[in-house]
Amino acid sequence: MAAAASELLTGWFLFGLALLAILIFSWVYVRKYQSRRESEVISTVTAIFALAVALISSALLPVDIFLVSYMKNQNGTFKDWADANVSRQIEDTVLYGYYTLYSIILFCVFLWIPFVYFYYEEKEEDDGNTCSQVKTALKYTLGFITVCAVLLLIGAFVPLDIPNKKNSTEWEKVKLLFEEFGSSHGLTALSFSISSLTVIGMLAAITYTAYGMSALPLNLIKGTTSAAYERLENTEDIEEVEQRILRIKSKCRDGRPLSSRDRRAVQQLEERLRTLRRRERHLETIEKSWWLKFCEAIRPLKIVWGVFFIIVALLFTVSLFLSNLDKALHSAGFDSGFIILGTNLTNPLNMLLPVLQTVFPLDYILITTIVMYFIFTSMAGIRNMGIWFFWIRLYKIRRGKTRPQALLFLCMILLLIVLHTSYMIYSLAPQYVMYGSQKYLVQSNKTIDGQPKNVTTFVAKDCDADAPEDQCIVTRTYLFLHKFWFFSAVYYFGNWGFIAVFLIGLIVSCCKGKKSVIEGEVDEDDSDMSDDELSAYYC
Question: What stretches pass through the bilayer (predicted)?
Answer without folding.
Answer: 12-30, 42-63, 96-120, 140-160, 187-211, 303-322, 364-394, 406-426, 484-508
